Amino acid sequence: MLIGILLLSFIATALQRITGLGFAMLTAPFAVVALGTHQGIMLTSILAVLASLFMLPGMWRDINWSRVGWIGIPAMVSIVPAAWLGARIDGALIYLLVGVLVIIGLSVALLMRGTAEPVTHRPAQILTGVGAGAGSVLAGIGGPAVTIFGVVSRWPVASFAASLQPMWVMIASATLAGRHWFMGSTLPELTWWMWLLAAIGIAIGMWTGQRALGKVNDRVVFGVVVILAMTGAVLSVVTGINQLL
C-alpha cells in the first residue's frame, strides 16, 4: 500500500498543478491508513513541500504575494497552538470536528457565492489562514479552508492555483515542525528508492498537469477544487468514525 501512496503522488501533483490544491487531500487519508496518523501526515506534508517547490518556478508570475502573506503567516502561527491542543485530544474527535466544520463552511460558502458580494477583506484572509494551518497539523488537510475563501472571494483560478504553492511550502513545513515538537510525529523510514519513486511521480505529475493547462475551462477547474475539498472533508469524517469504532 505504501508503494501505492508514492505512486499516487503522480495523480495528486497533476491535480495540484491544475487546481492549486488536492495533494494532501488525496494522499493524506491513504497515508494515515497505511502508516498511522503521525507518520501518515508527516509523509504527506514532506511530499507536499516537494510538490509545491517543483511547481513554484512555473507559476511565479501569477502569485498574489499579499494574500500569501495574509493567509500563510496566520496559518503558520495557528499551527503551534493547534499542535499543542492536538497532542491532548483524541485524534478521532479531531478528524470528525475538522470534517464537519469544513462541510458546513463549504456549503455556506457555495450558497453565498451566488447571492453576496465577494469577501476579500483582511479578517477573512486571516481566518482562512488559521483554518488552513489548524486543519493541516491536526488532520493533514488545509485545502478546504482555502477553498472556502476562494469561493467567497471569487479568486481567479490562475492566481489561486499559483498563490497556494508558496502557502503550502510554508504550511507543510510548519506542520512538520509542529507535529514533531508537540505530538512526537516522525517521518517514516523509507528506503532511498522509495523517496526517488515519490520524486519521479511528482515530477511526471507536474509535467502532466502543465500539459493539461489551458485545455480545461476555469469553471470546471474550480468545480474540481470544490469536489476535492468536500471529498477531503468527508474522508476526514470517515477516518474519525473508523478510529472511534
Secondary-structure topology with pairs:
Blueprint: H1 2-19, H2 23-35, H3 37-59, H4 65-86, H5 91-113, H6 122-139, H7 143-153, H8 157-183, H9 192-212, H10 218-244
Helix pairs in contact: 1-2, 1-8, 1-9, 2-3, 3-8, 3-9, 4-6, 4-8, 5-7, 5-10, 6-7, 6-8, 7-10
Beta-strand percentage range = under 5%
Name the poorly predicted regions: none
In total, how many beta strands?
0
Output the helix-strand order: HHHHHHHHHH
Radius of gyration: 16 Å
Mean pLDDT score = 86
- Give the termini separation: 22 Å
Note the total helix count.
10
Structural class: mainly alpha
Whole-number tally of structural domains: 1
Helix proportion: over 70%
Describe the main β-sheet briefly.
Answer: none
Shape: globular
Report what the structure shows.
The protein is mostly helical. It has one domain. The protein has helices spanning 2-19, 23-35, 37-59, 65-86, 91-113, 122-139, 143-153, 157-183, 192-212, 218-244. α4 (65-86) packs across α6 and α6 (122-139) runs antiparallel to α7. The mean pLDDT is 86.
Provide the descriptors you would attach to this structure in a database record:
transmembrane, 245 residues, 10 helices, globular, cell membrane, TM_pro_TauE-like, mainly alpha
Summarize the structure in short:
It holds the Pfam family TauE. With 245 residues, this protein is mostly helical. It has helices at residues 2-19, 23-35, 37-59, 65-86, 91-113, 122-139, 143-153, 157-183, 192-212, 218-244.
